[in-house]
Amino acid sequence: MKVGCYCRVSTPEQNLDRQIESTTTYSQSELDVALSELQVYRDKATGTNTSREGYKRLMGDVEAGEVDTVVVHEISRLARSLQDLDRTVSRVMESGATIHFVRDGLSFGDGDEQPMHRLQMQMLGAFAEWEARVKRMNTREGIAARQANPEYHHGPAPCVLV
Predict the structure, then answer these.
(1) What fold, for 3-148?
(2) What is the reported pTM?
(3) I need a surface site. Which of 51, 107, 136, 150 has the fewest CB within 10 A?
(4) Active site residue 51
(5) What confidence tens digit (pLDDT) does each residue in 22-61 have?
(6) Spatial contact of 2 and 39, defined as CB atoms under 8 Å apart
């Protein structure tokens, strides 16, 4: 069994260690996989789209049959778009592979999933998408408030993200 552990954080300053520990420990204890059979795919980028190098390599390896099990710490690490999440899980399963979400306690493609599992995944995916949208909105509002404040003296106000 070849396992691909996918780990993602949003910014270059953030650390992947906790996710790497979670996914590798799960793979060893729950899937009985040796460290030599694990490949860790890493991204330090937003999860609001799938234009991420680690994600693309993982999916390429899954579709090529080089990875037959994907392990992710939690759903929001894989995708912050419900559409991307659903599409990714479907692609994994269509390739004959399985996908496990450690913290969420969900697995797909292993023959054990229930209709409730898909609903739980979609609900968690919807919350991940909502959270990403709220963060973007809060950032835009904060930047606009600083730009409008005549007391702002810490260099030029940042540009508004569109």
Answers:
(1) Rossmann fold (3.40.50)
(2) 0.79
(3) 150
(4) no
(5) 999 999 999 999 999 999 999 999 888 899 999 999 999 9
(6) yes
